[in-house]
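Quick one: structure tokens for this chain, please?
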Amino acid sequence: MELQKVKILLEDYISREPNSSYGSLTATSFSLNVFLTQELKDVGMFLDSPTIPYDVNYPPLSYIPIPQKILDFGGGNFNFITQPGSNFYPTGSNYDDIRYKYKSQFDYFTNNIIVSGLTEDRLENVGSYGYTGNTKYIPGFDISSGLYYNYVNNLINGITRVISINDYNPIIYTEDGDINDPNLGTQLQGEGILFKTYTGQTRDVYNPITTIETIPLTKMYYHGQGVNQTNSTLSALTIEEYLLHITQKPKVDSDLFIDRGETSVLQSHLQMSEITTLEQLVNYNNGYYNMI
């Protein structure tokens, strides 16, 4: 435990009024800031343990219900083995937290999630320069376009454009939408974000500076990634002891080679026999010794 000492100047808490209270302590309590520190070590790197898929034609790899497996191989007797319902496995319904023997990792993926919400408008990103009023927003005109890769490494031809005006009630536009998407401009578009900004409709939002700020009503929609191969796995997580408290695998660089030669890194003491005076010691080997 670290011991910290703090000095408090009592002059600020002593009465200096010209009466009977002069010199008396006016404070009833003192507030001290205590700086708390704590050292935490990362648990380390977890690795995926290879899974064995269920194969009905190869019994040794077939899954055995956990209670029976413990009885057959472990000889244990736990309450969850003998109590009613211990061997019950739900059928006919899918549960995200249950591993089914006939299902693969792909069967757990959910990529049809539509996320919606309210936000600030992005009209400044789809307006054309040099135009004002109704001519500023041109449906079908790409303000920007470019190729990018989505989360599953598919190449997307992304565009930012106004989809439709609808007399500004609402104006529909998208950012980074896929130009080849048949659902572009609808709530079902797969890439990018869809916006709908309404004219004459506002909402109040909290602003730390102005407290309450009124902004145009803007709705946004995008296709959520859901559960996919980038954020889910059916493999068991294991940790290697040599990776405890290590957040990255050690990197080994085998291209480095040091040639130390055949001579020792320490200067031979026999050279001192060649020095007989202080001047020779100073001048030896062009100032080899640092004389102070």
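The chain has three helices and eight strands.
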